[in-house]
Write a structure and sequence with these properties.
By secondary structure, the chain is of the alpha/beta class. It contains 13 helices and 16 strands. The structure holds pyridoxal-5'-phosphate.
Amino acid sequence: MNIKQIDRDHIWHPYTQYATAPEPLLVESAIDALLNLENGEQVIDAVSSWWVNIHGHSNQRLAAAVHDQFCKLEHVIFAGFTHKAAAKLSAELLPLLPGKAERLFFSDNGSTAVEVGVKMALQYFYNIGEKTRNQVVCFEEGFHGETFGGMSLSGDLDFNKPYSSKLFEVHRVPAPIGGEKAATLDALEALFKTGQIAAFLFEPLVLGTAGMLMYDSEMLSDMIALARKYGVLTIADEVMTGFGRTGSIFACDQSEAKPDIIAMSKGLTGGSMPMGLTSCPAFVFNAFVSEDKAKTFFHGHSYTGNPLACAVACESLAMLKEPERQADIKRIAAKHRTFLKKHQAVKSFRAIRQCGTILAMEYETKEKTGYFNKRRDELYAFFMDKGVLLRPLGNVIYILPPFCMTDAQLDQVYAAIEQSLELDWM
Ligand SMILES: Cc1ncc(COP(=O)(O)O)c(C=O)c1O
């Protein structure tokens, strides 16, 4: 079988411009932070394969969890039936969630986990008779996925232009990046005061796709508290930030005020099975409990509550809580901090910032910072040539490593970045 030929002729890869993209690399296997290519080369996966792979690749404990579960029950319809793996995951995850999370709704990806949260919030107000509270506020720079809901709720992104006439309307406020706190809080308050806002949706602490833009936990807390003051439900999109990425298990652990609804995916199963989860407090769930069937939450996907995903999520969570893994998170954050301090004043970087295990650098360039910045393809190729997978967001590169990445591998990634500084990028 000629794999490359079949790929060339029949597979449509995501986020890939076929006119200019190089052929995809064929991965034979992967172990921990390393991808083994078919030509014998190895690549360090410094972005955890689109931010999912928190424990590294081909983890034997996760493999065993899937195998054991498969031998008992691989799947069952989740309406009218339940199973031990879902119950175990709920019992183990709910106490860890920031706030008063009491219920979990299961789905199968991050976009959907967010949409479920927004649907919960909108129907909550509908069910309790506040039908004019039906609008949503998000960040101008936010990203929440690629479904029509995800696109509508994200910022006004260039890649969504072909569909813009089909997206639903949301209110957008500037994210509090670069210390612009007052502008965000004022814009939020003006909207909240109308009494028409059902929900405020945000990426806590780090806006990933926008270029790993960061704001502090005090601001996160202030925004949540402000929403609560006006009776607005808060939805934290922890799809990227959840499961240790920002240094705490959830980004909202660092905030004093806690969100009502939390969307999760990516690191949830340690990068092994597709899964989304949305948590909510009892008062939201209770608004759906009624003799009136119209108050039901009419949502559910074929793979909702998949037992394999639940079982592996339990194992991944157990691993995340272990002292060794927590020490890894601290170790990576400390090494990032050292690198950041060393390069704070480097001319080639317009900015350098860190949150937990995420380290991001904005390269100086003639064009403005952004996803379509021309430097992206050059930077990607430069790092791949050094055996390091870093997927720049325009002129922003970031390290978002699996927590098992060794110091030596991290040093190799830093060294590649340092070498990139010696080139004339302007
Ligand atoms: C914050 C955030 N929300 C939602 C999504 C969408 O997740 P998925 O790609 O699993 O649909 C992403 C994906 O990158 C994300 O970063």
